[in-house]
Amino acid sequence: MKYAPVLLFVYNRPLHVKEAIQSLQKNKLARESELFIFSDGAKDSMQASAVQEVRAYIHSIKEGFAKITILEREQNWGLARNIIDGVSTLVHQYGRVIVLEDDLIVSPYFLTFMNDALEVYKDEPKVGHIHGCEFFQDESLPETFLIKFTGSWGWATWERAWKYFNPDGKALLKQLHEKKLTYAFDFNGSYGFTRMLYNQTIGKNNSWAIRWNASLFLHNILSLNVGRSLVQNRGFDGSGTNCGADDIYTTSFSKQGIVVNKIEPIQENLQARKSIEQYYRKTNSFRAKALRRIKRILKGDFSA
After folding, report:
1. Which among 11, 72, 71, 4 is positioned nearest to 32, based on CA atoms?
2. What is the 3-state secondary structure of the chain?
3. Taking Cα atoms as reference points, which of 208, 259, 189, 201 lies closest to residue 230?
4. Per-residue pLDDT for 201 more than 90?
5. Is the pLDDT of residue 242 over 50?
6. Which end of the chain is more exposed for a tag (fewer CB within 10 A), N or C?
7. What percent of the chain is modeled with pLDDT above 70?
8. Domain 6-164+219-298, CATH class in plain words
9. Among 42, 43, 30, which Cα is nearest to 100's?
10. Helix 208-218 crosses helix 169-178 at what angle (to 10 degrees)?
């Protein structure tokens, strides 16, 4: 089996990038995997120094992977354009990709799980996405389950699935409304994914992930998710483009690898969907958000 290339998207956080790389190097399949690092250009002169520090570090990496390719954007592309272009280019070339951002650290079992899942489900058209992060804190979830929801914190896909990606948020939003799917898309109204997509269409965010989520949702294509996390997101320290400072997505690593056995029949796990809905109702209520805001302010954190 040829292992999928790993795509790592970096910008201006050298410490995060170093942690991400070091965590990848602890995977036994890293030495057999190609690593592509996409380094975005500085948005302004204030970011230039940090971007150069990141680039100095990634050019210093000499071992740990089968091959390292660095692509430096001359200008600031932004995360969405960078990821869409990088994934589109390499998934066409390799047929499958594993995707990470610079604020993610991975378990030593991450690459094994991702490659196993990519192989087991390679010919299953109803599965188009694999996600390695679990933060719903429900121990009743099985080790793997299928769901109509595409998380973006350590994921993988195939060319056959990426062809469904529609970058036109307005078209996606229109389809969701026409098919009366907004309530289901929002986990029965527990989280505002439709609003997030609408905000993308009016320029309030530039999320590629919400468009990928909607693209597969509209085609009734499932994601294979883990019930025990193989990824941690360190971006909730206020340093990320799309992540504020918060602790509701804190998770611990699985203490062992996750065996990938094909789930039959290929259908959404409704128990898992209900669990995620309950999690969002608990963490996304006005009261819960207000309490988190107060706790952050008391700690001296005035981020949004």
Report:
1. 4
2. CCCCCEEEEECCCHHHHHHHHHHHHCCCCHHHCEEEEEECCCCCHHHHHHHHHHHHHHHHCCCCCCEEEEEECCCCCCHHHHHHHHHHHHHHHHCEEEEEECCEEECCCHHHHHHHHHHHCCCCCCEEEEECCCCCCCCCCCCEEEECCCCCCCEEEEHHHHCCCCCCHHHHHHHHHHCCCHHHHCCCCCCCHHHHHHHHHCCCCCCHHHHHHHHHHHCCCEEEEECCCCEEECCCECCCCCCCECCCCCCCCCCCCCCCCCCCCCCCCHHHHHHHHHHHHHHCCHHHHHHHHHHHHHCCCCCC
3. 259
4. yes
5. no
6. C
7. 89
8. alpha beta
9. 30
10. 40
Spatial separation of the C-alpha atoms in residues 275 and 78, rounded to whole Å: 33
Listed by start position, the domains of the chain span: 6-164+219-298
What mean pLDDT comes out for the span 244-271?
A: 85
Instruction: Report yes or no: 167 and 211 within 8 Å, Cβ to Cβ.
Output: yes
pLDDT at 190 over 50: yes
What pLDDT score was predicted for residue 243?
46
Rounded to 5°, the CA angle 264-279-299 comes to 140
* 294: pLDDT strictly greater than 70: no
Mean pLDDT of all residues belonging to the chain:
92
Q: What is the dihedral of CA 8, 11, 13, 15, to 10 degrees?
A: 30
Q: Which pLDDT band holds residue 59 (cuts at 50, 70, 90)?
A: very high
pLDDT for residue 220: 98
